[in-house]
Design brief:
By secondary structure, the chain is an alpha/beta fold. The protein folds into two domains: 3-79 and 178-263, Periplasmic binding protein-like II (D-Maltodextrin-Binding Protein, domain 2, 3-Layer(aba) Sandwich), CATH 3.40.190; 85-174, Periplasmic binding protein-like II (D-Maltodextrin-Binding Protein, domain 2). It is 41% helix and 19% strand. It has eleven helices and eleven strands. The protein has helices at residues 12-22, 40-47, 59-65, 110-118, 133-139, 166-174, 191-210, 212-221, 228-238, 241-244, 247-263, and strands at residues 3-8, 32-37, 54-58, 69-71, 77-79, 85-88, 101-104, 124-127, 144-147, 161-165, 178-186. The strands form two sheets. Strands 1, 2, 3, 4, 5 and 11 form a six-stranded mixed beta sheet that branches. Strands 8-7-9-6-10 form a five-stranded mixed beta sheet, sandwiched between helices. α1 (12-22) packs across α7 and α7 (191-210) crosses α8 (212-221). The radius of gyration is 18 Å and the shape is globular.
């Protein structure tokens, strides 16, 4: 039996993915997990200090810690029609954003990377917790906000307007699905342990799809501000076949994201093997 530290976000897609694994529902595995839940930008920051054996990361952030981690084939958030949105209180165009102060959910998030590719300039950026961005836009603290996660499902009901869909712009430019977040494992672990962990996560996702009712209490525990309907919408949007295995299509999309980020001068060059 091995004991590993594991960090992921409290968002429904992650709690759905990891529920079976961390609660001993997988009979083929007896590893134990020291679990830490935190916001994605906190996860990104902690990875620089190699805080956890296995951690959720924004794909953009992975570029800055690639010397310490490799990406697992299972557990990622990658798909189509699930990209970050820029919203505003009054209708705006993409061109209007050059005169706007925009709230972002963290400079190392994939959302910010995509925005940097498609919004070449703006008056300023303000980093804040992703769940605070809607209110900052509503109150006029900022002119626009870059939203991720469940806020995709709540902004319109609050009277906010969509300015642009960063994921749609990415898909139009590349034809690829949008790589948002990955699960990374420390390079210092033996290769055979990396593969066991990868297989556990894959089995955990498959178990969650097969027995979705079992994960609901854990999801609800960490998503108390959301209705069950929004929780399920969140899972449906971010957990899919790529979460079971990236496959060739997923790996190619991720590689292109890194290449585009490097060409734009935003991401560093990757010199180590990326995938397990």
């Amino acid at each position: 039996m091995k004991n590993y530290s594991l960090a992921f976000s409290p968002c429904p897609n992650d709690t759905f993915i990891f529920d079976a694994m961390i609660h001993g529902r997988l009979s083929d595995y007896d590893d134990t997990w020291n679990v830490h839940l935190m916001d994605v930008e906190a996860l990104n920051r902690n990875a620089a200090n190699q805080m956890f054996d296995v951690t959720k990361l924004s794909f953009a952030a992975y570029s800055f810690v690639s010397q310490h981690y490799r990406i697992l084939a299972a557990g990622s958030a990658l798909g189509r029609g699930c990209g970050p949105l820029i919203i505003s209180k009054s209708p705006m165009s993409l061109d209007d954003l050059k005169d706007a102060v925009i709230a972002i959910p963290g400079k190392h998030t994939t959302a910010h990377l995509l925005m940097s590719m498609f919004v070449k300039e703006c008056k300023g950026k303000v980093e804040m917790l992703f769940s605070d961005i809607e209110e900052a836009v509503l109150s006029g603290k900022v002119d626009a906000g870059l939203i991720i996660h469940e806020n995709r499902f709540t902004y319109a009901a609050k009277g906010l307007h969509k300015v642009a869909d960063m994921g749609a712009l990415w898909e139009e430019k590349t034809g690829n699905p949008i790589p948002l977040g990955c699960i990374a494992v420390k390079r210092s672990l033996p290769q055979e342990e990396m593969k066991v962990i990868e297989n556990q996560i894959k089995a955990s996702v498959q178990f969650a799809f097969s027995y979705p009712e079992l994960s609901k209490p854990y999801i609800k525990l960490h998503a108390q501000e959301m209705s069950e309907e929004v929780q399920q919408q969140h899972i449906n949007l971010y957990v899919n076949d790529f979460s079971i295995d990236l496959g060739t299509e997923g790996r190619n999309a991720i590689s292109e994201l890194f290449n585009e980020g490097q060409k734009a001068g935003i991401l560093p060059e990757l010199v180590h093997p990326v995938f397990v």
